[in-house]
C-alpha cells in the first residue's frame, strides 16, 4: 500500500537530465529512500508513494511522516485531493540518531496505513 520510492535525482545522478527523462524505471531493486544507512543525519532523503485510485470515492487524504527518535518526531504532513492524481511526496529530513522513519497514510474512508523503515545514522544531524 505504501512504498518507499527511489528519488529519481539520487537514483540517476550519474546520467544527464535528458537521459533520465527517457530511461524507464529500472524495476527489480531500486535504492530505498529513506536509505538503510545515512552517512550524515543532516540530509536524509525520503520519498514515499501511496497506491490509490485517487477518485472522489477513494483517495489518500494525507500522509504523515515521523522520526521516532528525534526530539520533535513530527517531520512533515502532506494533504492530497483526487485532483492530485497521485499520492507521492519527497523531502529531506534531519535525524538525530539511528531510528525508525514511520509513514502513516490517511485514506478518505478513514482507514490508516503505515510503513516503517529503520535508518542507521553514522553522524547525527540534530546536535549528535
Write up this protein.
It is a single chain. The protein is mainly beta and 128 residues long. The termini are far apart. Residues 7-31 have low confidence and may be disordered. The protein has helices spanning 8-11, 17-22, and strands spanning 2-4, 37-38, 44-50, 60-67, 74-79, 87-93, 99-107, 112-121. The longest helix has 6 residues, at 17-22. The strands form two sheets. The protein has a five-stranded mixed β-sheet with strand order 2-8-7-4-5, with no helix packed on it. Strands 1-3-6 form a three-stranded antiparallel β-sheet, with no helix packed on it.
Poorly predicted regions are 7-31
Radius of gyration: 15 Å
- Tell the overall outline: elongated
Structural class: mainly beta
**Quaternary organisation:** single chain
Q: What helical percentage do the residues reach? A: under 10%
Order of helices and strands: EHHEEEEEEE
Q: Enumerate the strands of the largest sheet in spatial order, edge to edge or round the barrel.
A: 2-8-7-4-5
Largest sheet report: 5 strands, mixed
Amino acid at each position: 500500500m505504501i512504498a518507499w520510492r527511489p528519488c529519481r535525482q539520487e537514483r540517476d545522478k550519474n546520467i544527464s537530465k535528458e537521459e533520465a527523462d527517457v530511461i524507464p524505471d529500472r524495476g527489480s531493486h531500486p535504492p530505498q529512500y529513506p536509505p538503510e544507512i545515512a552517512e550524515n543525519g543532516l540530509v536524509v532523503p525520503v520519498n514515499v508513494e501511496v497506491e490509490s485510485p485517487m477518485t472522489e470515492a477513494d483517495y489518500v487524504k494525507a500522509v504523515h511522516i515521523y522520526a521516532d527518535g528525534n526530539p520533535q518526531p513530527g517531520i512533515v504532513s502532506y494533504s492530497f485531493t483526487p485532483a492530485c492524481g497521485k499520492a507521492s511526496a519527497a523531502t529531506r529530513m534531519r535525524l538525530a540518531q539511528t531510528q525508525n522513519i514511520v509513514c502513516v497514510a490517511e485514506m478518505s474512508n478513514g482507514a490508516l496505513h503505515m510503513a516503517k523503515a529503520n535508518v542507521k545514522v553514522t553522524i547525527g544531524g540534530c546536535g549528535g
